[in-house]
Amino acid sequence: MFGLSLEHLAILLVAALFVLGPERLPGAVSQVTRAMRRLRGFAAGAQQQLEAELGPELGQLRKPLQDLQALREFDPRAALRRHLLDDEPLPRPTGLRPGERAPIDTDAT
């Protein structure tokens, strides 16, 4: 729920208890749940209306959005593997062992 953990929700509940008091807290919780249900209903209705009005054009709009999402999740290693190495996995770089020095290219320095 909104990316909050149980600990965060418990802290918010205790804070609301102190701010609102035990008498008004149940009413506030019920108002918040009603508002959330209404908001979900509005979102579902808007989505249905959009699908009804756009029809098949909605699919044409979804494709560019999916492409944008793929760009956000772009992984250069996977792209190299897919386009250059015919899906062969790239070797993972290995770290240096304790006491080992990094190789130096004397021609490059």
Description of the molecule:
- With 109 residues, this protein is an all-alpha fold.
- The protein is 67% helix and 0% strand.
- It is flat.
Write the layout of secondary structure elements.
Blueprint: H1 6-54, H2 57-72, H3 76-83
Quick take:
The chain is 67% helix and 0% strand.
- N→C terminal distance: 54 Å
Radius of gyration: 27 Å
Q: Count the DSSP helices.
A: 3
Order of helices and strands: HHH
User: Averaged pLDDT, please?
Assistant: 80
Give the number of DSSP strands.
Answer: 0
Give the structural class.
mainly alpha
Query: How many discrete structural domains?
Result: 2
- The best one-word shape is flat
How big a fraction of the residues is strand?
A: under 5%
Output the keywords:
0% strand, single chain, 109 residues, mainly alpha, 3 helices, 2 domains
